[in-house]
């Protein structure tokens, strides 16, 4: 009970946040939710709008509502140990990952070329967990020249050779951990399987890992020299999602409402591939791939809306309302009965399709309130920020690489302060948008400043420096809307951290187990199995002083009508059950007694 009690205490700081998230997800239902929000709720009937922005959100239910998840095939490619980075923290992180997988999952591990084979073919976790961990213990770090390409090739080849029958209803991922300083110029085909890349130490090839993550719709994380031993905690940011997959092959299908004359002008989708039908531009789609439990994907769709025709049968204009767009979710969605197909016609497990129809008012009046939706405004702004930073990376960082790598040249002033340049662009950018109604910079101002400070620490003369790694990892997080480690597991974009990621972080094995650094300052030693994580900004407290000049409390008004005492009790039970499962404990169900955990 000691381990479980420790974890319960460690999680106490997150209870308010998690309760609020739980209540919101319960209101959304037990399936993936698709919603659309227009920049304006009304468009005058005679008015055209060449850039009518629509916020599109895809919300996955939390794990407790799914009552299970999609099984995964995980390939871990390790190319560490040939340089200054130790292989030991990586091996401990791999064993941590193996323990986090469920019995329905399978794992394969490729070590550095010329080292002993680890697990070259998929091994079912059920009954083989200890065997897999022993194989990791036997791994040795030996390599020659530039082996990373061949390691990835082997992993991709094995995935391709899997029989079709063994792949049905399963999600496939590659986790690539390396400290290699230079990759070969040619990259393998990476479009089929997401690669979540981890660079260790300041000398790893950040630009190559960024490219691998981009092409595969994966993520790029890195650990700097001071945190290169914290691999397990960094990996937990990814594992929390991989072990809570709610849907695979997910894609959003967009169709202009029949008879509306609407065209899709463009789609802001960050790192997710999107396309628009050629010709009439009346349809499009966004390929999400795997969707994790509890996460939200936000996109902005730009429509060309013509003047509404006079009301007539079949024109979709009625009672001053008009349908503009239908957004549907396709893919394989997990339900209590397993993985089922969902498309335009039906949802998994029966029922109608998962979709939302965008309807706006088209009144005849020409003068209407011009107050835009604040949430849409801020998402438009966020995507524009990504475009601005992308342009900065292309202009100021990638062009600094040698001509042999990029085929382009640029005069490099070693005295250039890239941090100052980025801040100057940011300040101009903010001034250009200062009159946007409803705009809230939120955490972006502080985050851009942190990125600029990372560039100021050292003048970049090559993008293999960890200084460029920080901006690459930050962009990867925002483009994929998922957490990445930006030099340290504690440096993450908190808005993308789901409940499952939180819980996985709580049980992450500290990479410094048995390592140097002394033990007189309260750090964990060999017997400690948990790492510390930085708290996110807290939600409002559940209870506040009643104001009666005594020690009584009342519910915070922020939660009234949302959370009851029974909700709190049920949520604490779910936390307890989650901790039991995360620690591979069993529940003893005794007659007329509450379940209790035993080791």
Automatic annotation (TrEMBL):
Residue ranges of every copy of the VWFA domain listed in the record: 73-222
A Pfam family the protein falls into: VWA_3
Entry keyword set: Signal
Source organism, top-level taxon: Eukaryota
Protein name per UniProt: VWFA domain-containing protein
Coiled-coil portions: none
SUPFAM superfamilies (alphabetical): vWA-like (SSF53300)
Signal peptide range in chain numbering: 1-23
């Amino acid at each position: 009970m000691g381990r479980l009690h420790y974890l319960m205490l460690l999680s106490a700081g997150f209870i308010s946040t998690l309760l609020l998230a739980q209540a919101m997800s319960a209101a959304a239902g037990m399936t993936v939710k698709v919603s659309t929000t227009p920049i304006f709720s009304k468009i005058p009937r005679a008015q055209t709008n060449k850039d009518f922005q629509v916020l599109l959100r895809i919300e996955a239910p939390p794990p407790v509502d799914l009552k299970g998840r999609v099984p995964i095939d995980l390939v871990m490619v390790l190319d560490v140990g040939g340089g200054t980075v130790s292989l030991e923290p990586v091996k401990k992180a791999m064993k941590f990952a193996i323990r986090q997988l469920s019995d329905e999952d399978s794992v394969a591990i490729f070590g550095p070329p010329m080292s002993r084979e680890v697990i070259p073919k998929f091994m079912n976790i059920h009954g083989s967990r200890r065997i897999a961990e022993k194989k990791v213990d036997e791994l040795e770090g030996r390599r020659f020249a530039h082996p990373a390409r061949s390691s990835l090739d082997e992993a991709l080849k094995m995935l391709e050779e899997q029989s079709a029958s063994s792949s049905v209803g399963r999600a496939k991922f590659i986790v690539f951990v390396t400290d290699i300083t230079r990759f070969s110029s040619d990259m393998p085909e990476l479009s089929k399987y997401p690669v979540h890349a981890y660079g260790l130490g300041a000398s790893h090839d950040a630009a190559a890992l960024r490219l691998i993550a981009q092409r595969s719709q994966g993520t790029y994380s890195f650990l700097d020299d001071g945190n290169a031993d914290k691999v397990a905690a960094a990996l937990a940011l990814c594992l929390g999602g991989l072990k809570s997959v709610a849907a695979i092959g997910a894609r959003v299908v967009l169709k202009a409402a029949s008879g509306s004359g609407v065209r899709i002008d463009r789609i802001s989708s960050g790192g997710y591939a999107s396309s628009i039908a050629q010709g009439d531009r009346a349809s499009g789609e966004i390929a999400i791939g795997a969707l994790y439990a509890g996460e939200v994907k936000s996109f902005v769709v730009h429509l060309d809306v013509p003047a509404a025709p006079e009301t007539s049968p079949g024109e979709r204009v009625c009672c001053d309302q008009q349908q503009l767009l239908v957004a549907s979710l396709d893919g394989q969605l997990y339900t209590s009965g397993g993985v089922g197909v969902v498309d335009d016609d039906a949802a998994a497990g029966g029922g109608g399709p998962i979709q939302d129809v965008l309807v706006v008012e088209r009144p005849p009046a020409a003068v209407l309130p011009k107050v835009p939706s604040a949430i849409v405004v801020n998402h438009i702004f966020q995507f524009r920020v990504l475009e601005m930073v992308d342009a900065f990376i292309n202009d100021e960082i990638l062009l600094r690489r040698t001509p042999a790598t990029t085929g382009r040249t640029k005069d490099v002033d070693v005295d250039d302060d890239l941090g100052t340049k980025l801040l100057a662009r940011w300040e101009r950018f903010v001034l250009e948008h200062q009159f946007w109604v409803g705009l809230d910079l939120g955490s972006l101002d502080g985050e851009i400043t942190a990125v600029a400070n990372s560039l100021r620490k050292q003048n970049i003369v090559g993008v293999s420096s960890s200084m460029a790694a920080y901006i690459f990892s930050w962009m990867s997080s925002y483009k994929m809307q998922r957490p990445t480690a930006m030099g340290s597991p504690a440096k993450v974009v908190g808005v993308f951290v789901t409940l499952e990621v939180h819980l996985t972080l709580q049980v992450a094995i500290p990479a410094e187990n048995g390592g140097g650094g002394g033990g007189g300052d309260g750090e964990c030693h060999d017997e400690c199995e948990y790492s510390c994580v930085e708290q996110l900004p807290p939600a409002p407290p559940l209870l506040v002083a009643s104001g009666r000049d005594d020690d009584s409390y009342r519910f915070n008004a922020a939660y009234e009508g949302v959370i009851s005492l029974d909700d709190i009790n049920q949520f604490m039970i779910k936390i307890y059950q989650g901790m039991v499962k995360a620690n591979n404990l069993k529940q003893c169900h005794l007659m007329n007694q509450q379940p209790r955990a035993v080791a």
